């Protein structure tokens, strides 16, 4: 029920409450390729919305035994983030006795050290964006002037919460689960550190 409520609230916020005018300065800068005009923190959050789905593809495909298949929701999250994942967690994430849907070759790849290290490197590269210097005041201005930044900020926090929940839900016996609270990197580290015991 909580996931359904969050989903409806997220939709309501995006449609009715998100601040921003008719012209979106951040969206215009992205389409024009003028990334230098965007505050590094805004850019890092924007890029993170591409990293979260990669992490969720890994988590959900490795645990695709639930009532609904995970792949449509995980793949849709690349385009609409938590808007795609919340219905899955609300209705489809119910344990069954079925076998894992994910092909063996894909399980091996997604659980491989190579793939997990690649995800870690992507996280590091995105974090390096912040070394350019960022301004919380500039982010606040962008939040209130750009509906894209407003919605993606809320989306980021929902995805973060879902990622923490996923680790505790799918891997209750994993060691160092508290690392899952580190956005994006944390769940990957949990998988990496527990690779042998979670097979």
Low-pLDDT runs: none
Mean pLDDT: 92
- The rounded Rg comes to 18 Å
Q: Termini separation (Å)?
A: 31 Å
Secondary structure: helix percent:
55-70%
Beta-strand share of residues:
under 5%
Number of strands: 0
**Approximate shape:** globular
Structural class: mainly alpha
Number of helices: 10
Q: How would a crystallographer describe the biggest sheet?
A: none
**SSE pattern, N- to C-terminal:** HHHHHHHHHH
Count of the separate structural domains? 1
Secondary structure elements and pairings:
Layout: H1 2-17, H2 25-32, H3 40-61, H4 71-80, H5 82-92, H6 104-110, H7 113-128, H8 136-145, H9 147-170, H10 185-193
Helix pairs in contact: 1-5, 1-9, 3-4, 3-7, 3-9, 4-5, 5-9, 7-10, 8-9
In words, what does this structure look like?
This protein is mainly α and 199 residues long. It has one domain. It contains 10 helices and no strands. α1 packs antiparallel against α9, α3 runs antiparallel to α4 and α3 packs antiparallel against α7. It comes from Planococcus halocryophilus. This is DUF2834 domain-containing protein. Keywords: Membrane, Transmembrane, Transmembrane helix.
């Amino acid at each position: 029920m909580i996931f359904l409520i969050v989903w409806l609230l997220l939709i309501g916020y995006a449609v009715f409450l998100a601040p921003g005018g008719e012209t979106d300065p951040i969206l215009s800068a992205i389409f024009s390729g003028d990334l230098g005009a965007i505050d590094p923190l805004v850019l890092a959050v924007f890029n993170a919305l591409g990293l979260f789905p990669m992490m969720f593809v890994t988590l959900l495909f490795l645990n695709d035994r639930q009532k609904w298949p995970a792949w449509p929701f995980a793949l849709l999250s690349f385009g609409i983030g938590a808007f795609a994942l919340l219905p899955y967690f609300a209705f489809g994430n119910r344990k069954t006795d079925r076998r894992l849907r994910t092909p063996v070759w894909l399980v091996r790849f997604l659980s491989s050290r190579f793939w997990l290290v690649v995800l870690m490197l992507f996280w590091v590269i995105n974090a390096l964006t912040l070394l350019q210097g960022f301004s919380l005041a500039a982010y606040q201005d962008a939040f209130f002037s750009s509906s894209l930044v407003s919605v993606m900020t809320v989306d980021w926090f929902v995805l973060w919460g879902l990622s923490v929940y996923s680790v505790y839900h799918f891997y209750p016996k994993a060691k160092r689960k508290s690392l899952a609270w580190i956005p994006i990197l944390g769940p990957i580290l949990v998988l990496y550190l527990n690779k042998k015991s979670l097979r």
